[in-house]
Design brief:
- This is DH200=94 genomic scaffold, scaffold_4952.
- It comes from Coffea canephora.
- This protein has helices spanning 2-11, 16-45, 52-69, 81-91.
- With 98 residues, it is mainly alpha-helical.
Length: 98
């Protein structure tokens, strides 16, 4: 969504109301993400029908998603840095030093 927003802004003929709406939508998404993190952190302290391993994996997946997409998804604009970062995280092997 962010890359599309930047692309629309670069065209230059964005009505002020659309720009305001997009900013409000971005603020709301940030709020929803913050609330979801609060719920996940709270859920970790409660009794769960799932194992602690499963809960840890679920939280780590959420962390990975946030890390990968916090600067956009890399689609819809010329800068391929976010796309390259996502590719590196998912497909390139890690170097382990012994």
């Amino acid at each position: 969504m962010y890359s599309l927003f930047q692309e629309v802004l670069n065209v230059g003929d964005v009505p002020k109301s659309i720009r305001c709406y997009i900013e409000k939508a971005r603020e709301h998404l940030r709020f929803l993400i913050t609330e979801a993190w609060k719920q996940m952190e709270e859920a970790q302290t409660l009794d769960s029908p799932f194992s602690s391993t499963f809960n840890g994996i679920a939280v780590n997946l959420a962390r990975m998603g946030l890390c990968m997409y916090q600067h956009g998804d890399g689609h819809g604009h010329q800068n391929s840095e976010p796309r390259d970062r996502i590719f590196a995280l998912l497909f390139e092997p890690l170097c382990c030093l012994a």
